[in-house]
Amino acid sequence: MAEKVRFPSTGGPALGGAVDLPEGAVRGWAVLSHGFTLGKDSPAASRIAKQLAREGIGVLRFDNLGLGDSEGDWGDGSFSRKVLDTAAAVRFMEESGRPVRLLVGHSFGGAAVIAAAHLAEGVRAVASIGAPYEPRHVEHNYDALLERIEAEGQAPFLVGGKALTLRQHFIDDVRGADLHERIRTLRRALLVLHSPTDDTVGVRNASQIFQAARHPRSFVALEGADHLLTGRGQAARAARVISAWADPYLA
């Protein structure tokens, strides 16, 4: 069962989300950050959240600016904005009496939750799935547009039938993001999940994240999974691993 929610973004426009409520005894609460342009209802985000809820962990998953049920213009967003809005989601949950101890992020969202943990004092554990070591890795999605954006300041960006606008400030923001330092100084338990055969974000990214991290840190290879976790049972498997690993940090 999912509870529809809305809360203010860092810049003002309301963000739409869903809280997948725990089944049975409540073990804890989490916030999940979706991939680059995927949204809270993408297969990976929704299946992970629902499986965690079956395991007793309630999860808020929300649409980033201008996507799905959220207001605003996606083109006004950035990696930094995604990080700040993830921290805002944690505060929203805490203000509703649901203290968040776990952050989960998929792909681009995996990088965002590592950075957002620094802004969320109560968070004790972070799990990244198929995350890039450098946020600028997303440039492979729009490298053909870079010349036009640098000349005109923006360009139309079509993703999965969605017409978005990509602006220069987004490119500058991801290029300036230093995830290495955020990982090194995380001071929270970190679980890195990655498929060895991920051909979108190569597994070398997981190695770099793991090597930059300090203990407690763990790595799990999602054998046979694709980057979007679209295969049967792939997202649920990742969620079950996260659930078992996060248990000591949820109390």
UniProtKB/TrEMBL annotation:
Molecular function, one GO term: carboxylic ester hydrolase activity
Entry keyword Hydrolase: yes
The keyword Hydrolase is assigned to this record: yes
Entries under Gene3D superfamilies matching the protein: alpha/beta hydrolase (3.40.50.1820)
Domain called AB hydrolase-1: residue spans: 31-232
Domain of life: Bacteria
Pfam families, per the entry: Abhydrolase_6
Keywords in alphabetical order: Hydrolase
Family in the record: Belongs to the AB hydrolase superfamily. FUS2 hydrolase family.
Protein name: Putative redox protein
Species: Microlunatus sagamiharensis
Classification lineage: Bacteria, Bacillati, Actinomycetota, Actinomycetes, Propionibacteriales
